[in-house]
Amino acid sequence: MPQSVRALIAHCVNQVVRQYYPEQYCSLCHVYAIVGSNLISIVLGRVYRPVAGLAAVDCGGGELMRMMDNNAFSNPAGGAYHCWIESADDVMTEREVVDLTFRHNHIYAEKNGHGWRRELPPDFLWGPQSQIAVQAPIDAIPTSFPDGMVWLHETDEGWEWMTAQLLEHQNAFVALTAEAYKLFQASLPPDSRLLAQAQAASGANTAAATETMAAQ
């Protein structure tokens, strides 16, 4: 799939969230995850879902920003947790992980008392789980990660909280998704083939995965 389509999706979600939440945007990872998963699913014709749980981000200099408060999902005051996006297609050989809030990591870190001693983060992460998510148990997370990687762990409490958010604020998320899709369509030049190419690539990947599973 062309990287430019991914970048355009990430841009449109970011623009819409920042338009409606200009002060709180860098703390609204669940809004990015819900609107982003909706938009990706619409554009690519596949199934993506918002995920909530625990995370750790490498701030550089041996310091991790740990978003590990699983009790935050039942605390009205909130707490330190994270939300991201995962593909939910049964036929895919490897799950995709998408984090559309990665561009804000340095801002969020500094607002929460962490230093940032790395290059500025990329605008988003999007790729196979093995290339995005650090594989380590919660009690053995390394003190530094390769560039473009993050530690993630979905929890039952996060799943229940995310489900409740989707039900309680359905109309708002539908409206935000519609705004993001409208912006996405408006951002494509009239003669652009980026969308068709992205959908074709997504379909080819799904077909290849199906053939692989059938041959096993």
Total separate domains:
1
Beta-strand share of residues: 15-25%
Low-confidence region ranges: 206-216
Described by the principal axes of the CA atoms, the overall outline is globular
> What sequence of helices (H) and strands (E) makes up the elements?
HHEEEEHEHEHHH
For the termini, the CA-CA separation is 26 Å
Give me the Rg, rounded: 17 Å
Mean pLDDT: 88
- Per CATH, the class reads Alpha Beta
CATH architectural grouping: Roll
Helix content: 40-55%
Overview of this protein structure:
- A hairpin with a 2-residue loop joins strand 1 and strand 2 (63-67).
- This protein has a single domain (3-215), classed as Atu2299-like, CATH 3.10.550.
- The radius of gyration is 17 Å and the shape is globular.
- It has helices at 3-20, 29-44, 105-111, 129-132, 156-168, 170-187, 194-215; strands at residues 48-60, 63-67, 82-87, 96-99, 125-128, 151-154.
- With 216 residues, it is α+β, with helices and mostly antiparallel strands.
- Helix 1 (3-20) packs across helix 2, helix 1 (3-20) crosses helix 6 (170-187) and helix 2 packs across helix 6 (170-187).
- It is 45% helix and 17% strand.
- Strands 1, 2, 3, 4, 5 and 6 form a six-stranded antiparallel beta sheet that branches.
- It contains seven helices and six strands.
